[in-house]
Task: structure prediction
Amino acid sequence: MYTVDATDSQLLRALIHDPRSTFVALAARLGLSRNTVQARMTRLEESNAFVSFDRCINPVALGYPLTAFIEVHVQQKRLAQIVDELAQIPEIVQAHGMSGQTDLLVRVVCTDADDLFRIDGTILAVDGVERTATSLAMGELIPYRVTPLLERVTESTSR
Result:
């Protein structure tokens, strides 16, 4: 498994600052050669350092102003089939397998409370789903971020 070093950290932070940067622009900004930037970007891509870029699209712009988190309790032996069926529901934008009392934590976007009720019903209709508990998100207080982790990498490797 590839581990990010200080140069990779600088490169990734530059991308966070300006995601549309070309390799040439990144090289100039960081004082690296274009070939170095290209090689490192290739290595980062091959090592799965990047998650899906569609996370940057705001669902509000698509007509989904509400976000909710649904705790889903399932029959474990049917987990794979349940996940496959849940993946077919467009309003589910993310799901995590959990330890503890909840089996799955599902993030959904919806147009209004009635739409949320419909989505919850669709989830409950999946064979093997036992029950759900829904919480409406009141606001994102800390958005998804990795910059503090990248800064830590830079700090720890430059000591």
About this structure: The chain has a mean pLDDT of 93. The CA atoms of residues 64 and 110 lie 5 Å apart. The longest strand covers residues 66-74. Helices lie at 6-17, 23-30, 34-46, 79-86, 113-124, 147-157.
